[in-house]
Amino acid sequence: MSFHTFSFYSEDLVPGDTRVWLIDDEHYHIARVLRMGTADRVRVTNGRGLVVTAEIDHVGAKRTSAQIVGVDANHPEPVPLVLSLAMLPRERMDLALTQCTEAGITGWMPIVAERCHVRKTIDRGERWNRIAVAALKQSGRAWLPRIEAPIDARDLPAKFKAFESVVLADMGAAQWMDITAKPVATLAIVGPEAGFTDVEQSHFAGAGARPMHVSSQRLRAETAAIAVVSLLALNRGPV
Q1: Which residues, in sequence order, are CB contacts of 140 under 8 Å at separation 6+?
Q2: How distant, in Å, are the alpha carbons of 47, 108, 194, 205 from that of 198?
Q3: Residue 26 DSSP label
Q4: Phi and psi angles of residue 21, each rounded to the nearest 5 degrees, phi first
């Protein structure tokens, strides 16, 4: 039996289940990568708060079945913390999603801004979902971030009404925001490395976005995103 409990994801897992089946990438990782077998224990989450411990009883050709031996947690839905990051080259966008998922975002809403090097509105939803699942398992989270398709920066303010707080990462902001207050539904916006245009910033500010000081140093866009999320997630509890 393994001494380390590896984490896996099963979208179909629901409260009250006595058994869980792991398929596709999860099954491949168990059968081909870790070469786990009968009596090995795994940690499984459905990405909607439920976390269980299960004992493998069969590793088949296409799926692994495991008997649930205990419910570790059933976390309530967390207070929303959604990241809206300007589109970056693929590797850097993937890095931002990985680390921001580990840090605690509940949603991923990329935007295409005027100064983005990546100008096409590319929907990488399937790829991004796989990355988020991997980060979910790595970090031990119980809630999978909601992945949305990229939208134009001009359409972003229409999303603001769904949040109690909208913050815009801004190196020139006068002061840090109060991150010790009670968490509220928050949208965090991070622009491209060349920054948002004056028109875009005015558009955001007019819709209620507030500037947030993140660092006195000049940060890459993906670094700024990780910094913002880490600060805002400090007192939000389990996700």
Answers
A1: 7, 43
A2: 39, 24, 12, 10
A3: H
A4: -110, 135
